[in-house]
Fold this sequence. Notes:
The complex is a heterodimer. By secondary structure, chain A is mainly β.
Amino acid sequence: xxxxxxxxxxxxxxxxxxxxxxxxxxxxxxxxxxxxxxxxxxxxxxxxxxxxxxxxxxxxxxxxxxxxxxxxxxxxxxxxxxxxxxxxxxxxxxxxxxxxxxxxxx
Amino acid sequence: xxxxxxxxxxxxxxxxxxxxxxxxxxxxxxxxxxxxxxxxxxxxxxxxxxxxxxxxxxxxxxxxxxxxxxxxxxxxxxxxxxxxxxxxxxxxxxxxxxxxxxxxxxxxxxxxxxxxxxxx
Lengths: 106, 120
């Protein structure tokens, strides 16, 4: 299985800050990576596909980059609604695997 | 389009977990893979497996011996059965829809999730 290592597991920040979350794959996955946002009690939401493609309706303050084994999710200027959990997922090979998640805290 | 999971909430050890996901507001017979994912505080998200509307399945090798995913097109639903459950199978179970993108398949639609507890 491809292991997805996400860091940090939690990060404290303030409204207006810039935050970067990292996801590292145990082997190369080209750009076959997605980022999701998960709010407690809600269904996860797809933010970014193919490492860098922002989904319709997702604010432009979110961006993704990377290829191969190293990927980042950046939120350029935090809004109050961004303080929740984010995780990555690879679809390069079965079984699909996920990062452990990063909790963004005020 | 919405997905809604349903299940018993509690299953006894060594028993069989059965969950159903209903697809509403859209067709189940489209080019998507209908998927089950579970989440635990300790292990995070785990992909269980997927099914195409034609019945083709893919399973996580770590669970393959215990898992069956099926689809009922007439009822617009797909189901998960996991047998010989233990406490380690206690999790929030999500159904999701995987769609094709430029590079890869990703889950652009999720159910709200259902908590399944394994306990006597």
